[in-house]
Amino acid sequence: MNVREIMTEEVGTCSSDETCSAAVKIMWDCDCGIVPIIDSGRRVVGAITDRDIAIACWSRDCSPGQIRIEDCMTRDVHCCSPGDRVGKAERLMEGYQVRRLPVEDSEGCLCGIVSLADIARRSEPKAKGSAQADIRPEKVVEAYAAVCQPRNGRQLHA
What we know:
Elements: H1 20-30, E1 34-38, E2 44-49, H2 50-60, H3 86-96, E3 100-104, E4 110-115, H4 116-122, H5 137-147
Antiparallel strand pairs: 1-2, 3-4
Helix pairs in contact: 3-5
């Protein structure tokens, strides 16, 4: 199965010169936790998550309307292509510890986004058969476990 078959094509985006309020509105309206940041040619130049915005607001003691996206977005964004196998997207998510990947077309322009949740939904075994080809539930669990590992090696305690 290819990424194109499970990705979300309608993706809300922002530019880096907007405030975080614009990204928050997209997250609310689209029920998502990430907004790709694109340039005028629809090329991905970054991404911002709800967590990025929450931490930026808390650490600056101000509202999202007072913070520019470029001041707290992630610039090193890893992408995949619509024709990539879903297994490749899973491996990218595992390797870079991300839950979502922007999808770029052959010209490097944003054409969608794929999430670990998209993959998980397609891994459910059908009534009289197994999960979709190359989307096995155990691989989804492995990818999720890898994404959830602390990046700095610390053990987290509640």
